[in-house]
Write a structure and sequence with these properties.
Length: 165
Amino acid sequence: MNHSNIAVLKQLNDLLHQLSDAEYAKPLPIISKNTIGKHVRHILEFYTCLLEGIENKSVDYDARKRNLELENYTGKAGETSNFIAETLLNLDKKTELELFATLPHDRIKLTSTVERELLYVLEHTIHHFAIIKIAVKNEFPQVKVADEFGVAYATLQHQEETIKN
């Protein structure tokens, strides 16, 4: 699991190296005037929130700290992505966690594990990559993203099996 998370963070860094800060922080109509940087900030904050939560065995993605540098500067986002990838290498995936979530009329607490939360942030990342890919292809055609960028692993596997048959 750690290696899959690290692989998507590498994909993110490959994208970041191709964008200027101005492109990264530009509000884009195709994604409701949001920016690629806002999506990247959101992704990185979920990872950071999980890593910080592991220390006290309690994770609350809704209470994460927002870091505007991550949405405005590709260099800061890349540094943070690299730090997260390095940290992921040595996690005990079996550690249990308390997971807190805010719902429309409720606040809940669940039991989870580091492994389960790594899967969650991986799928969450891929979902945001799909949105980022739409923005990049529409606004910055010179930027190259891999075909598998923003595509779920199960979908990639299904596509591969379809080609073989």
